[in-house]
Design a protein that fits this description.
By secondary structure, this protein is α/β, with parallel strands linked by helices. Helices cover 35% and strands 16% of the residues. The protein has a 6-stranded mixed beta sheet, sandwiched between helices. The protein is globular.
């Protein structure tokens, strides 16, 4: 399945590189699907199909050591994005992986040709747009897989410490940012960045997270990467 990958070193500035990643990436280091088909799973009731599914994989144990409710925070942030865009009960699914700098550096080098860790990478499985975020309908009784968001602990921890903000707040910001990328948002141009940041502020405010773009106490500027 074609995929689109987005990444950002989301600090005081905004920057993103995107490109076609070819076949659907296997960002979690999982083996390729077996050649022989497996028996189809039992079809869940319609009421379950109508609910979005947000799977959270903690591949770096340090996340649980630093923030034991990190998976729950990620799920709430992901659902908040879908709810804000008018799709709280859409039959969709997405994956969030709480990883580390080593994994993000490898993925960043492979898909963006940048041999350095970054805070978040988004792998979108569809070319969605902000105006029509869910134009692809899944087959009856199935969910539409939207993509993967992968977040690096060490980089996120450093950014949170430098900006004097709680790790939980910065994590939720990056989840919101990553999911918006999957749904077609971008920030390569000034107008795009303003629109995306406005959505982030509104969604995060509903989650009780302060404005991540408010000037820091020392008003320090960090150049985009």
């Amino acid at each position: 399945m074609p995929g689109r990958m987005s990444g950002t070193q989301h600090e005081r500035g905004v920057s993103k590189a995107a490109g076609a990643s070819g076949d659907r990436p296997q960002p979690h280091g999982l083996p390729e699907p077996p050649d022989q088909p497996e028996p189809p799973p039992a079809e869940p009731p319609p009421s379950e199909i109508d609910e979005p599914v947000i799977s959270v994989l903690v591949s770096a144990p340090v996340w649980r050591e630093a923030l034991d409710d990190a998976p729950a925070l990620c799920r709430r942030a992901g659902r908040a994005v879908l709810g804000a865009l008018g799709a709280p009960g859409a039959p969709v699914e997405l994956s969030i992986t709480l990883s580390d700098d080593a994994s993000l550096r490898s993925l960043n080098a492979r898909y963006r040709e940048r041999d350095a860790p970054t805070n978040v990478l988004s792998f979108a499985f569809h070319d969605l747009t902000p105006d029509t975020p869910l134009p692809v309908a899944p087959p009856p009784g199935e969910r539409l897989a939207l993509g993967d968001v992968i977040i690096a602990f060490e980089t996120v921890r450093r950014e949170a410490d430098r900006e004097a903000k709680p790790l939980a707040d910065h994590l939720r910001h990056l989840v919101v940012h990553g999911v918006l990328h999957i749904l077609g948002e971008d920030h390569e141009e000034d107008g795009q960045a303003r629109r995306m940041e406005a959505k982030e502020r509104r969604i995060l405010a509903a989650l009780g997270v302060p404005d991540p773009y408010a000037p820091s106490p020392d008003d320090a500027e960090v150049a985009p990467i």
